[in-house]
Amino acid sequence: MTYIAKPKFHHPGLKKNELGYTHRDYEGKISTLCAGCGHDSITASIIEACYELSIEPHRVAKISGIGCSSKTPDYFLGNSHGFNSVHGRMPSVLTGANLANRDLIYLGVSGDGDSASIGFGQFAHSIRRGVNMTYIVENNGVYGLTKGQFSATADRGSKSKKGVTNTDNAIDLVAIALQLGATFVARSFSGDKAQLVPLIAAAIRHKGASFIDVISPCIAFNNHAGSTKSFDYVREHNDAVNRLDVLVGRDPISVDYAPGSVQVVEQHDGSKIALRKLDADYDPHDRLGAMTFLQKHSAKGQIVTGLLYVDPDAEDLHEHLNTVETPLNRLEADDLCPGSAVLDKINASLR
Amino acid sequence: MSDKKPISSVNDFVVRFANVNGSGSASANELFARAILRHGVPVSPRNIFPSNIQGLPTWYEVRVTEAGHLGARGGVDMMVAMNPQTWDKDIAGIEQGGYLFYDSTKPMPSTKFRDDITVIGVPLTAITNSTYTDPRQRQLFKNIIYLGALCALLDMDPKVIEQLIGEQYKGKEKLLSSNVHALHLGRDWALQNLKCPIGLRVKKADKVGDRIFIEGNSAAALGAVYGGATVCAWYPITPSSSVAEAFTSHCKKYRHDPATGKARYAIVQGEDELASIGIVIGASWNGARAFTATSGPGISLMTEFIGLSYFAEIPAVIMNIQRAGPSTGMPTRTQQCDIIACAYASHGDTKHVLLFPEDPAEAFEFAAAAFDLAERLQTTIFLMLDLDIGMNHRLCRPLKWDDARQYDRGKVMTTEMLDEGRDFGRYLDVDGDGIPYRTYPGTHPTKGSYFTRGTSRDRYARYSEEGTVYADNMQRLVRKFETAQDLVPRPLQANAERPTKYGVIYFGSTAPAMDEAIGLLEARGHQLDRLRIRAFPFHSSVASFLAEHDFVYVVEQNRDSQLRQLIVNENGIDPVRLVPIVHYDGSPITARFIAKAIGDHQDHLKVTPLRKAVS
Ligand SMILES: Cc1ncc(C[n+]2csc(CCOP(=O)(O)OP(=O)(O)O)c2C)c(N)n1
Ligand code: SF4
Questions:
Q1: What is the side-by-side order of every strand in the sheet holding A242-247?
Q2: Helices A287-299 + A173-180 axis angle, to 10
Q3: Which of B414, B431, B447, B587 could form a disulfide with B418 if both were Cys (CB 3.0 to 4.6 A apart)?
Q4: Host H or E run for residue A235
């Protein structure tokens, strides 16, 4: 067998969440990625976020495309259904799955090759449709699985491991997600768990299309001098606009930080995002402002991270389509079939 | 004038309308076809249209056929020539002794006519212009005026047309009366100025019975509604767009929660075919019934996902309304040319289930059945229509539904079954039919979850590249395909009056022309047993039929005799015994064509030693 299952042993002293689940219950198989791959840190953050939110693991559907990043759903939430679809086409599969059952939580995991090239169209359209999902791109600027070719998010002028300079312009998926109307847009760094975990948690609680671009260095092919997606480069150029906490409880929240430096955003489901501001002027409700802010900083070679935009009153695709509350996959012949009497009438109208 | 006797025929002739796209003639022409039906006389109409929107020529042909032949006949007995652009071609298409009806406001020189046809001129533009001032009215009512003139020429009952107009404009009194007025304007002019009626006549009969008049695409869409499809994802392409459009309108009428008014369906116009099939696969993976409708180029784009559906065993329904390929080919012309592309779609070793309805009634039944089959077999099911049935009205038996019917959701392991301790292996062949159990996402907190992937895996869905594990899985897929043989609609056989060594195989929209051709062949002294194939994989009766006949003609509408290739490939039969009869110019195959092709071959066989005949 080429897969490795984790040992079932649970330490009796492991911390439990509200539902009585331990971290272990949110884990999956042992990763087969390169040791030190940024994607594994993202996996760890997803596990942490789901644990903290006390999500029932089996109520999550985790869907991906093809690539090292897209393999990761096998490494978290072992008790949920996963779907490694085809290269770049995760968004459509996720859209269909979401239409069939609006009651599950949808996690879409993709790579920059997957989403910014072959799947660029699907990425764009799932976002503009407002599919209720958390769409995470594990962005390393290269094709990891096919061994190091530049991807479309590689910055112009950045160097490959072999020393080749990229002459094409980069696609900034965050800028595009903002432009396309994503109602939750963030960027983070795989090496910044403190920022990433609450971002994922908030995105999961968000009803609508949530997009998180996570810069995730590829140890094997993109972690050298000259790469703008290396651990060192991102650490040096990271400019966080905010840090956040997600509060799920219904109790009134008391936040320890001085008023003015904290902004609380309440989402549909009652969860609250407390934004600890690093940049005092930054307003995450202003889509246009976010776009300008992003462009300005990118021109200065800075990588802006944090929650860049959120619309707490977002609607999702099911609302746009006005579908029934009962998941469509639960409807049976009695709900769906108009019956023979109606058919007789239809026949009569066709004579 | 004519040196040939004018054609004289009651309830058996072909009228063709030559129009300009965008002139509003379509509804008047359809009214003509429906009016004949209301006389109790079967019709078989066909749209012949170019792949453009405005300005270019279109034709609408109505075969009036008391005998009820629903295939195209070929030839035109009366041409209603309303398009100067196609004048020469239109005139040339008229049968000897036939009729030409034209707008004589500007009379044509006699060189523009043929002397073996009867020319009927009506100054349509002059009549219209003297009655209406508004340009749009002039254009639209001109169509109703020629309909009125035809009513007199063909001896039709104007009351029948009036009644149809009444139904069309129910509650819109003004439109109703103005249309009826235009109808009489044309009729009165013809009665006063022309010799009415002509040799072609419509006489009231009782040959329509309870049959309905519907397009294949609309019937297939209704089949999807009855079959419980809740998710439809599609991308516009002729000739399949009207499936999704009809599904939308049927759903709007019949699929809302009475309490909340909310939709019990979701329809997404995808950004392309890749997304459409992806949505279908995602929805089906998650337990909803989902489908897409497309045509050849869309199938090409979907093939990677179709392979995933096959290998990862996810249900999907694809309605393929075929048009003439390859590439963009002739987008608005009919063919049955995607047989091989669909049967073996995608890379690696794949095989898919194809259903071949012959008419709208079967399109309805097979569409509904496709969802049961997709879930039962956990794979892609192709409903193979073509433009000829998809976009034309056909007379067919009324649609039927058994209210006791429940959907076959296939082998789905539930929470209870998992709690009972049932062994769940996603790719485990528990029943020996090659079909494993699946679970829907979210079923159970600790049991039954698995990872779906297009990569090889073992019976418990664990990733594996072991050769034996891979081969085991591939063998099971073959077993599953064999199981499919007995689940899909069986072929229908009809034997000749006398025992014969010759057979004919055909399928789909060729059926009505074939039924008619049999009569023509009998008249020529040829006896043939018939087998109408209704699905792939082929039922064992196909092999028996082949074994029982020395020669079997395979009639189809493509160049390379694709069904024949499939039969040869799947049955290991000597190809020499399967004689291809192919028609692929984009027009629907006719009885005349089939009877001539088979008849000539039969004559040849009978006078030539076999070896020569087949070399
Ligand atoms: C249709 C198709 N084309 C190409 C491939 C080959 N392929 C597999 S993964 C991949 C790129 C993966 O890059 P990315 O999405 O950035 O993920 P990473 O491996 O870097 O995490 C490619 C091109 C494929 N599987 N399918
Ligand atoms: S090749 Fe790169 S992206 Fe793939 S696992 Fe290794 S480090 Fe990660």
A1: A242-247, A272-277, A262-266
A2: 160
A3: B447
A4: helix A231-237
DSSP assignment, residue B488? S
- Average pLDDT, stretch A265-279? 87
Neighbours of A231 (CB within 10 A): 18
Q: How many CB atoms lie within 10 A of CB B568?
A: 18
Note whether A92 and A62 are within 8 A (CB): no
Whether residue A130 lies within 8 A of chain B, CB to CB, comes out as no
CA-nearest residue to A90 within chain B is: B278
Answer yes or no: is pLDDT of A307 > 50. Answer: yes
Instruction: Read off the pLDDT of residues A38-77 as tens digits, 9 standing for 90 and up.
Output: 999 999 999 999 999 999 999 999 999 999 999 999 999 9
Whether residue A339 and residue B400 make contact (CB cut-off 8 A), yes or no, is: no
Q: Which ranges constitute the DSSP H helices of B93-199?
A: 124-131, 135-153, 158-168, 173-193
pLDDT for residue A5: 63
Residue closest to A30 by CA, chosen among A44, A19, A12, A15: A44
Query: Which residues, in sequence order, are CB contacts of A176 under 8 Å at separation 6+?
Result: A123, A124
What's the token pair of residue A230? 């290396």
Q: Which residue matches tokens 């790469």?
A: A227
Radius of gyration of chain B (CA): 27
**pTM higher than the cut 0.80:** yes
- CA A35 to ligand 2 center in whole angstroms: 8
DSSP code at position B461: S
DSSP state of A117: I
How many other CB atoms are there within 10 angstroms of residue B527's CB atom? 16
Distance B304 CA to ligand 1 centre (A): 14
Residue B613 has pLDDT above 90, yes or no: no
